[in-house]
Every structure is written in C-alpha cells, then in structure tokens.
C-alpha cells in the first residue's frame, strides 16, 4: 500500500536493529491477506509471541477487525496510541527528531505535490483542514528514514511520481465487477 521498495524496508529494519518478518500476497484479496497473516502470526505464537502492537489511533472498525482476527488465534492486539491527539503526536514525533517522507498521497485529500514531501515543522500548518495530521484516515502514508532509534539514516532520494487508481478486487464468489475509485500518488524512493 505504501509503495516503498523492499530494499528500503530492509535498510530501515537493519538501521533500527529489529528483525523484519515479510508476508507476501499475490492475489491482493482480503481472504488471501487474512490467511497469510494468520499463518505468519501462528508461527510467531509458537515462538512465544502473544501480543501484536498497532499504531492505529481512531478507526474503530479497523481496531475491531484486528482484535477479532488475533483473538481467533489466541493473540492480543495492543494500541498504545489509541485516541491520542494526532496534532500532539506529530509534534512529539518531530520534536524527537524523527524524519519521514510522504511516499503515498490519497488524491481524495492531497494532490501530487504532497507525494515526496518531507514532514517537517511547516507540514502541520499547511495541511488542508480535512486532513488528519497523522494521516489516520488514509490521507497519506510515510516512510520513516531517520530518528533517535536509527544507527544511521536510511539514504533516500525522491524520484518519479506515479499515479495509480485504486482498484478494488473482489472474490470469485461475488458477482460484482472490480471497480475503480479514487487513487494514490506514489513517490518512488531510491
């Protein structure tokens, strides 16, 4: 969803010093995603991991989905940022000297010019009023490339911007055709 190259994710995890577990999906359906995530999480549970931490802040339906999915396999969801003020959270993020770039901007909220933008002190004051400061309603997604937990910054170079319409995939047992809705501006990072 974020459109970040896998090599950058590898570099990010290495710089932070945490293991990275990758789960690949091919079809892009919810059923496939849910099955592959369940398999990966059951593997982690066998290793003694029983909690999964999420950065969700507001979306009740997403929280319920995560809690219900984990409960089915005997795991628990943890939401340390739940219901916190997103303006204050973003300000704290910046005060701690984290650096992040918008890798994906939803064109229902933000246009092409936002893709590839570094989130800095001017970011908050220039956001449209209908955009959550943390992008909590899917307005944008980011890639964090530096901060106090990084051994060294992940070197990035924003390049080409690419527009991709959002295509909703349906399962074979549903008689609805795939449909296009709004899309996203992606900034290729190298």
Question: How are the SSEs placed, and which strands pair?
Answer:
Elements: H1 6-16, H2 30-46, E1 51-53, H3 60-72, E2 76-78, H4 86-95, E3 99-106, H5 121-126, E4 140-146, E5 158-168, E6 179-189
Uncertain spans = 173-180
Total domain count: 1
Give the neighbour order of strands across the main sheet: 4-3-6-5
Quickly count the helices: 5
The radius of gyration is 18 Å
Record field, number of beta strands: 6
Largest sheet: 4 strands, antiparallel
Structural class label: alpha+beta
What overall form do the CA principal axes indicate?
globular
Strand content: 15-25%
Distance between the termini: 17 Å
* Mean pLDDT across all amino acids: 92
Helix content class: 25-40%
What can you tell me about this protein's structure?
By secondary structure, the chain is an alpha+beta fold. The chain has one domain (6-49, 84-189). Helix content is 30%, strand content 23%. It contains five helices and six strands, in the order ααβαβαβαβββ. It has helices at residues 6-16, 30-46, 60-72, 86-95, 121-126, and strands spanning 51-53, 76-78, 99-106, 140-146, 158-168, 179-189. The strands form two sheets. The chain has a four-stranded antiparallel β-sheet, with no helix packed on it. A two-stranded parallel ribbon has the order 1-2. Helix 3 (60-72) links the parallel strand 1 and strand 2 (76-78). The longest helix has 17 residues, at 30-46.
How is this structure best summarized?
The protein is an alpha+beta fold and 190 residues long. The chain has one domain.
